[in-house]
Amino acid sequence: MKDCRFYKVVLLWLAIFLCSGTFSVRAEMQSARALEIQAAFLIKFISYVKWPPDVFLNPDAPVIIWIAGRDPFGSLIDTLARSETINNRRVEIRRSDTVKNIGAGHILFVSPTMTTQMALIMEHIADQAMLVVGDTPGFLDKGGMIAFVRKGAKIRFDISKTNCDNAGLEISSKLLKVAKKIQ
Question: What is the domain range of residue 165?
Fold first, then answer.
């Protein structure tokens, strides 16, 4: 009888162990999928934003996407960028761990590791028409223009039209229609 109870306890612990691993793997897969979607969105946003004419130095100048802070996308976004030409422009990905090293560009993704420096970032790029994108709560209130919002397994985004207008960026009505919320 004691042996039977021992095996039941062992089986219970084994089941708990296996299930917790399954949840962890599933959560990691959902997280990886979310990053793929965000990376694709960053590149697709290019088609739905109109920058002032003087932002591009010449007709074939690339669209530059900066990633500030710890890069959550890794080589995935580089692969996506290499495969895209939007409005006859290549897409280049650049990275910076510091605010002062963020150069001229068109889109800036602010990773969660840099959101505490949003005031400095916004001051640093104040003279640029740069679409600022992030995925932390309250991002739009700190000057961001598009904030990724995760709802279950879905990735959506909110847009601050006011912040975009202030930066001299014109957001397509098509992009505004699919936004979860517009401020």
Answer: 36-182
Number of Cβ within a 10 Å radius of residue 118: 21
Instruction: Using the Cα atoms of residue 26, residue 41, residue 147 and residue 101 in order, give the sign of their dihedral.
Output: positive
Instruction: State the pTM of this model.
Output: 0.82
Question: What's the domain count of the chain?
Answer: 1
3-state DSSP assignment of residue 45:
helix
Q: Which of 52, 46, 79, 50 is nearest to 65 (CA)?
A: 46
Give the helix/strand (H/E) hosting 27: helix 2-44
For residue 47, the SS3 value is helix
Whether the CB-CB separation of 92 and 64 falls below 8 Å is answered with yes
What's the CATH number where 41 sits?
3.40.50.2300
Of 101, 3, 119, residue with least CA distance to 11: 3
Look at residue 21 and tell me if it is in a domain. no
Tens of pLDDT, residues 42-96: 999 999 999 998 899 888 899 999 999 999 999 999 999 999 888 889 999 999 9
Location of structure tokens 């740069």: 130
